[in-house]
Amino acid sequence: MTDAPAPTRTPCPPQHGIIAAHARAEEVAAASADFLEQTVVGSLLLEGAGGTWAPATGLAPVPRAPSFAILFPGAVRVSDPAVPLEKTADYLRGAVAAIAPWARPGATVVLGSGASRRIPEGVDRAAAERRFADSVRTARDLAAEHGLEVLLEPLHQGETDLVNTLEQATDFLDAHELSGMRVVADLFHVMLERESFETVHRLAGRVGHIHVADTDRRPPGQGDWPLGEFLTALRDGGCAAHVSIECFTWQDIPAEGRAALEEVRAADPAAS
Q1: Alpha-carbon 99 to chain mean position
Q2: What GO MF terms are annotated (predicted)?
Q3: CA distance linking residue 163 with residue 96, whole number of Å
């Protein structure tokens, strides 16, 4: 299979957003976020009868966004050679069709989904890696047809046993002739995997999007993680990507989100 054409990468100053479901768009806007990074599974794409998935209907208009997250549900097994690749492709066609109407030109789609890519019991690791690479390539190509760019996100070992660090992510892409793809740098996973900021700096040129949180995935400013050092390593290494806050402990997005975004913008050398 030949490489898909690269999606348009529109130059613009980095912006700062919040990851949330479509239903929380007004709360995210009230927090002064530059964008809502919409979740795909369970928000833009809904499960129907018989395990089928279809784009959600009747959603309120929101501004187009530069990034989207949570591409696969756990039931879509993207590293299992026993699952026909065409079944994964069918799911992806629906997913990118659901994303496209809400996306800016060249928007990124984060491929994390730890449960989906976990190696099934009894499956040879090399075979699982090959099938995962095929799934990643399929996602890349189908997204590119809509002007979207899929990014591989390394996830810590508590979430998956396949691609845990930035180093592993770039090595994986290179080993499977996917070197034109970029990755996501997520402070949460970097901290849990104890990956050095020297490595973050060295690989910054291959980073297409940034996720941040504070200790225990709380909003930035509510813990003691080195947000400024992380963002400085990326910016000094040549990364100009947008930044999204990814937290699961929100009590009040308008209030907490505004304070968290102030922390992120103050810590980001590229903030305008």
Answers
A1: 13
A2: isomerase activity
A3: 23
Show pLDDT as tens, one digit a residue, over the chain (272 residues). Answer: 344 444 545 457 899 999 999 999 999 999 999 999 999 999 999 998 888 899 999 999 999 999 999 999 999 999 999 999 999 999 999 999 999 999 999 999 999 999 999 999 999 999 999 999 999 999 999 999 999 999 999 999 999 999 999 999 999 999 999 989 999 999 999 999 999 999 999 999 999 999 999 999 999 999 999 999 999 999 999 999 999 999 989 999 999 999 999 999 999 999 96
Q: Do β-strands 53-55 and 45-47 pair in parallel, antiparallel, or remain unpaired? A: antiparallel
227: its two tokens: 């947000």
The CATH architecture that domain 16-267 belongs to is Alpha-Beta Barrel (3.20)
Say whether 107 sits in a helix, a strand or coil.
Answer: strand
d(CA 152, CA 72): 12
Ramachandran class of 234: left when φ > 0, alpha when ψ lies in -120 to 50, beta otherwise: alpha
CA-CA distance, 168 to 78, in Å (whole number)?
A: 18
Contact 160, 118 (CB under 8 A): yes
Cα(50)–Cα(245) distance, integer angstroms: 34
Q: What token pair was written down for 50?
A: 């018989």
3-class DSSP state of 261: helix
Whether the CB-CB separation of 208 and 10 falls below 8 Å is answered with no
Contact yes or no for 55/97 (Cβ under 8 A):
yes
**Displacement of CA 66 from its chain's centroid (Å):** 11
Q: What angle do CA 214, 216, 219 make, to 5 degrees?
A: 35
CB atoms within 10 A of CB 239: 24
